[in-house]
Write a structure and sequence with these properties.
Length: about 350
């Protein structure tokens, strides 16, 4: 069988010819030069995407064209999980002499897409991204960008890019298995943002664990607000299928459940067991303290930044790297365990 020859890599001159401009105009467009007309810049960017042109980062470094900066886009800077990631990214980048341009997408894909576009063309040497929606159609263009992109926590599902995430499915199984060891048989899974791959993986881990334990009662509550959580949980605990345990698949659902159960005067750890996914510092201040699956947030940021910097410095065609980090179960008292004296 005859092997196909490797596709010739597009050059800057190829892009210039396709766009009908000179090579200098292509270079200026890539580097965000202010004197390139917008219509011209659009033609150049279209040619870059069409030809899948990627500048030689090693050559750019030798000629001093790199910005020595990277972009980081997260959904919400006020979220402890993302703030820890951001801090780790900044520290790792600083150690390598890079500046981090930080932006928050406010859980809006259109804002996120605009931020990616701005960072690409004004320019940074690479982008770290926590996608709002890992299946959003605009993400199809990510793989053809002229700079490397690494996703954190949520791999893009439409295209293949480098990513760093955690063992979501295994972490969910760890949490539910612990509840089963306490004798729980009616374990309800409570989630928000179930469109995310991470949450779907945690739901899958929950369902796998129940099947393995031959427990037929599986129930998934998909919530979108605190008010909905209160209405739904009230009906659940007044029903004949009242759960003896709850597995909350992310921080938002854990917090909503804690607040609602307190209003309903349902004692966590005794009347209903609770284990959450994501561990935050104030869980130790709640009565009872919350048992949770801990994600290595700082390690996520550090590993993702190291991977991106490696991609920037080494101009290669190595295969996509997908790193999966382990999680751990932090046992406290909301699951029914006794406090160690």
């Amino acid at each position: 069988m005859r092997k196909s020859l490797p596709t010739k890599r597009a050059t800057l001159e190829d892009v210039a010819q396709a766009a009908g401009v000179g090579p200098m105009t292509v270079s200026r467009t890539i580097n965000g030069h202010p004197y390139v007309a917008e219509d011209t810049a659009k033609r150049v960017r279209a040619a870059i995407r069409q030809l899948n042109y990627r500048p030689n980062h090693a050559a750019r470094m030798l000629t001093g064209q790199q910005s020595r900066s990277i972009g980081l886009i997260v959904p919400d800077l006020a979220d402890t999980f993302f703030s820890i990631i951001s801090h780790a990214v900044q520290e790792t980048a600083r150690e390598s002499g890079y500046l981090v341009w930080l932006a928050a997408s406010s859980y809006d894909p259109s804002i996120e897409a605009a931020q990616v576009e701005q960072m690409t063309h004004h320019p940074v040497d690479g982008i770290l991204l926590v996608p709002v929606d890992s299946r959003h159609k605009y993400l199809k263009e990510i793989a053809s960008r002229i700079i490397p992109v690494v996703t954190i926590d949520r791999p893009i599902e439409l295209v293949t890019t480098d990513s760093v995430q955690v063992e979501n499915r295994a972490g969910a199984r760890m949490a539910v298995e612990h509840l089963i060891q306490h004798g729980c048989r009616r374990i309800t899974c409570v989630v928000t943002n179930n469109h995310l791959r991470t949450i779907r993986d945690r739901i899958a881990g929950y369902e796998e664990c129940l099947r393995h334990a031959r427990l037929s009662h599986s129930k998934i509550l998909q919530l979108s607000s605190l008010m909905e959580a209160k209405d739904t949980l009230l009906k659940l605990f007044e029903s004949r299928n009242r759960p003896d345990a709850l597995f909350t698949a992310n921080n938002a659902s854990t917090i909503w459940v804690i607040e609602t159960l307190r209003e309903l005067n349902i004692e966590v750890g005794k009347e209903v067991k609770l284990v959450g996914f994501d561990d935050v510092s104030f869980y130790t201040l709640i009565t009872p303290p919350i048992t949770a699956v801990r994600q290595p947030a700082a390690e996520l940021g550090r590993v993702a930044a190291q991977l991106l910097l490696q991609r920037i410095k080494v101009d290669s065609f190595s295969s996509t790297i997908r790193t999966v980090l382990p999680v751990s179960l932090v046992i406290r008292e909301s699951c029914g365990c006794k406090r160690e004296l």
